[in-house]
């Protein structure tokens, strides 16, 4: 039995395919299949039901795969110990961001971070929260930056900063002349939302609570979109107002759209942004460096989170 064989069976269990597992492990399918067959012969059990599509893990296979994950995690701690002793930040690291965070925060920290740690191979992707939690569980990503709290079992949440909601109120809207907004002034009938699946949408709905009414028929049209850029354009065309994150509002400050930004009265409704990872994560020292870099890249008042009210994303 070898650690390589354990890596192969874990990969097959995750991808439910020998071909996809081989591709993930950077070996040919015959090589992976042969090594798994050798392991099965040595153990005297069948780990996978190859007759099923996708490939199914047997009952005894499930127990062995789970134990293999533990062994691989413990073996990985050796490299972790060595890197920590040398003060090294290197290797591969898979980091995900939810779409409502990525455009504003990645350009803020990435250039300086990669220059500081040139030996770290960083793989970045955008995923929605539900997919992130699933991929964390399967070990397909190492960490993610999301809106919290989530309260997911086995997941650590390390708070980075708190980001206020800002109103984007176009000219001619009933709230355009207001200097500050209040929650009570929000009306779902003229509030443009992100489409379902985005946690920012859920936070806005939680913020509105009493004002939000499902299946409200008083508005002639109900618009939802997958990105803030579209919502902003629709608002400027007179379809209503929308709420956007503070960092996005900062990016608009030098454009003609600055005049449409309205802050909320204090305590400002906000979202909590954290880096999350599994309890058994080996690359804690990399996570700490990423967290440090992101916190340095945002305004200090967002890190201290004074006079802000966190609105839950779920």
What does this structure look like?
The chain is of the alpha/beta class and 314 residues long. It folds into three domains: 82 residues, Arc Repressor Mutant, subunit A; 114 residues, Periplasmic binding protein-like II (D-Maltodextrin-Binding Protein, domain 2); 107 residues, Periplasmic binding protein-like II (D-Maltodextrin-Binding Protein, domain 2). The chain is built from eleven helices and twelve strands. The strands form two sheets. Strands 3, 4, 5, 6, 7, 8, 9, 10, 11 and 12 form a ten-stranded mixed sheet that branches. The protein has a two-stranded antiparallel ribbon with strand order 1-2. A hairpin with a 6-residue loop joins strand 1 and strand 2. Helix 2 packs across helix 3. About 4% of the residues have low confidence.
Strands, count: 12
- State the CATH topology of the largest domain: D-Maltodextrin-Binding Protein, domain 2
Annotated CATH architecture of the largest domain = 3-Layer(aba) Sandwich
User: How many distinct domains?
Assistant: 3
Shape: elongated
Low-pLDDT segments, ≥5 res:
210-221
Order of helices and strands: HHHEEHEHEHEEEHEHEHEEHHE
> Class of the largest domain, according to the CATH hierarchy?
Alpha Beta
- Radius of gyration (Å): 24 Å
State which percent range the strand residues make up: 15-25%
- The span between the termini is 44 Å
Largest sheet: 10 strands, mixed
Indicate the percent of residues in helices.
40-55%
